[in-house]
Amino acid sequence: xxxxxxxxxxxxxxxxxxxxxxxxxxxxxxxxxxxxxxxxxxxxxxxxxxxxxxxxxxxxxxxxxxxxxxxxxxxxxxxxxxxxxxxxxxxxxxxxxxxxxxxxxxxxxxxxxxx
Length: 115
Prior knowledge:
- By secondary structure, this protein is mostly beta strands.
- It has no helices and eight strands.
- The chain has strands at 15-17, 21-28, 32-41, 49-54, 59-62, 73-81, 87-97, 103-113.
- A four-stranded antiparallel sheet has the order 1-3-6-5, with no helix packed on it. Strands 2-8-7-4 form a four-stranded mixed sheet, with no helix packed on it.
C-alpha cells in the first residue's frame, strides 16, 4: 500500500530530553517537589504527546497538548508527593508520543526521610 500520509521512521519526531533523570536528593516525608523535564523535538515532523503516566499515583505528570514543531522545545512538569513514601525512590514517567519508539521514559529519583 502506498500511504502518502504515513511518516517514514527517518522523518518521525524525536523527543530529546535535556535530562532523563532528576535526582531531588533528600526530602522529608510529606514534602512535595516539582520538576520540569525539558525536551526538544530534534526530528523532522511535529511531536505530539498523547499520554504521560507515572509508575505511582503519588507522581503527577502534566504535558503539552499542542504539537511541538521540529527544533522547538517544551517541558513535562512532574509533581511528586512524598507522603508515606519513605526510602529510596525511583519513579518512572512513561511518555507516549508519535515517536519511534512510541515510549519515552524519564526518572525521578531521590530519598524520602522521616521527619
